[in-house]
Amino acid sequence: MTGGAVLRPEPLPRTVRLLLLARVVNQLGAFSLPFLTALICTDYGASLTTAGLVSAVFGLATIPSRLAGGGLADRIGPRTTIVLGLCGCAVAQLAIAASSSLTCAVAGAVLLGLAFELYEPPSQAIIGGSVPEPQRVRAFSLFSAALAAGGMGAGLLAALLGRWDLRWLFVSDAASCLACALLIGLALPRDRPAPPAVKQDDTAVRPLRDRRLLGVLATGTAYALINQQTVMTLPLALARQGLPAADAGLLFTAAAATTVLAQPLIRLPWTSRLTTPAALALAHLLLAAGLAGYALSRTLPTLLASAVVWSLGDLLVMGRVYALVTDLAPPGGSGRYLAVFGTSWGVAATLAPLLGTQLLAGAGTTTLWSTMAALCLLLAALHLRVTPQSPSSCLVPAP
Length: 399
Hints:
Blueprint: H1 14-27, H2 36-44, H3 48-75, H4 78-98, H5 102-116, H6 120-130, H7 136-164, H8 167-187, H9 196-202, H10 211-232, H11 234-240, H12 248-261, H13 269-272, H14 276-296, H15 300-328, H16 334-363, H17 365-386
């Protein structure tokens, strides 16, 4: 094998492939959330501060949602939990689309937050438990790529429907959630109750007492905060620059396309030989470069180039960090470890709109993106010092 050859991976289990397909379907309509603040401002005449508070309430509601997803997966099974979460999201999305007042929209946002993360821990636990350690980085990278593949269509749909009426984005998202729930219910095997021995072992799983996990949770929360700025604040930032808010859909599409097309980079020998701390440090350097591009860009083509650079860093993060958390978990504890780590997204979704809207209103887009880029540089240095090694950091070539 030559030095630049791509490693040939083993095929993924059927359950994982079906789950990836279902999430592609789900993502086809999943770009309504970034436009929640824009909808509140345009349809109800609310201020940026009010819109940020509503998004923060949504983010706060996702924290118990994520923890409940891990617990429900253990009690009623991952398939049932995924279907329940997707149906709850659909109901909430339709409630937001049909809301006639700001109060109704806020109630819909809270309901959406409570259902939004139910399906993530069981989905990630299915992937982590279905593939061997050396293939976990690839499996989680493909999971990210599956979401991005659906996101390519979603970004174009957002750019189209967003120019017509932002409410149709929420209707489209609800339809994709129901379609994904149907596919999961029909395609994945039925849930099986865990044997008594496993249930007894689960009582010893204490993720909040694992210092390694808490360290990864801290850096992961900072990364999620930066990531959520590019999701929740980008439409508003574009509007402040005189560009249509719906152009954020084009930037999301460019980032998603890069995530899909750049998957072979994960299997290159030099990237697969990187330790987890080194890979995450490199990822955050790329994230910083992309955010610096957002700070300096004033035209759509340069913003698109920045989105591509950002997504390359995002690609490296998503595969490595979830494989690391799965590796840190004791037997039978991956669901709860992933659920606790996933609360980083809830914390970020709560703080990001508050921080982003305040920086945007008080200092402008350049300061907003420059601050996020500086935080990425700090995280790159921290990963080299505090992030633990992962057994699956290096992929094993297929024979």
